[in-house]
Amino acid sequence: MLSAFRPDRSRCNLQHRFRACRLLGANVIKRVSIAASICLLAALALFPSDKPQSPSFSAVLEGKESDIVEALESVASDTIIHGTYVYDREPTLTGAEEAKSSSAFRNWTGGGRVYYKVYRNAFSPRNFKDSADQGTITVRYVLKTEGAERFRIQIDAVYVETSHRTVHASDGIVESSEFKAVAEQLRAIQLQAQRDMQAKARIDSQIAARQDLLRRRQEEATKLTDAESSAEELVKQLQELRHKVEMRVAADSAPVKSAPFEGAATLVSLKQSTDVVVLIVTPYWLGIETADGHHGWIRKEQLVPLP
Predict the structure, then answer these.
(1) Has residue 46 got a pLDDT over 50?
(2) The predicted structure's pLDDT at residue 59
(3) Which residues does 249 contact at the CB level (< 8 Å), separation at least 6?
(4) Last residue of a domain, which of 160, 192, 224?
(5) What is the tally of structural domains in the chain?
C-alpha cells in the first residue's frame, strides 16, 4: 500500500507546484502590464502626440523694440524655412507662407507677439526627427519683453504628417537657423540706423560750420560798413565778400534737393538768375540757402559766380 501511494503523492505535489508557478507568473505579468499602462498614460498626459509643449529654442535679443519687431516680421514673411530642406540639390526650402495661427500648436496664452510660418506638402524634410511621408512644416515665433530694450524670442518648429497626423519635432537646427536669420536681419537694421545717424551728424556739423562762417563774415561785413573808409573801398570789399558766399542760378530751372543725391526729394525749384548763399562745397553738390530761408543742395554745374 505504501509503495502504491507514493507515486500518486509525488504527482500531486508536482501539480500543486505547477499551478502555483502559473498563478505567480500570471500575477507578475498582470502587475507588469498595469505598470506599463500607468507609464504609458503618464507619458501621454505629459507629452501628447499631436502638439508640442515647450519651446525648443529660447534666446535674448537687445535693441529697440521697433527694430526687433521689424527683423522678426521680415524673417517670418521671407518664404524660407531656414535649417531644413527636402531635396539634396535644393538646400534652401522656399515657398513658405506667413500665417496668423496654426493647429500644429496649442493656442498661445503666454502673452507677447506671436508669428507663424507654414510650408505645406513637404516630403520627409531634413532635421525633423524620424520625418516621413508628406506633411506640413510650421514654425512659431514668440517675442516677449524682458526689460528696457531686452526681449526674449522663443522658436518652435514641427513637421506634421498629412495622413497619419504624426508630429515630428525639430532636432534644434531649424529653430537655431531661424534665430540666426532674425539676429542677422536685426544687425543689418541696427548698422543701417547707425550709418544714417553718422551721416546726418556729419552733414549737420558741416552746415553748422558753414553757418558759423557765414555769421562771422556777416559780422565782418557789418564792421566794415561801420568802419571809416571811402564809399568806393566799402563797395569793393562787400562785392568781394559776396562773391565768396553767393552764386547765381545759371540753368532755366534748378531743383533744390533735401540731400546731395539725385534720388533725394525736391524741396523747391529756383528760376534762372536767382541768387543763393553757398554754405557747403562738395565735388558735385553745393549746400545753399535761398533768400527766403530754404536750405538744400544744388548740382554744382547749375550755379555760376556772380558777375
Answers:
(1) no
(2) 95
(3) 270, 271, 272, 273, 274, 275, 276, 298, 302, 303
(4) 192
(5) 3
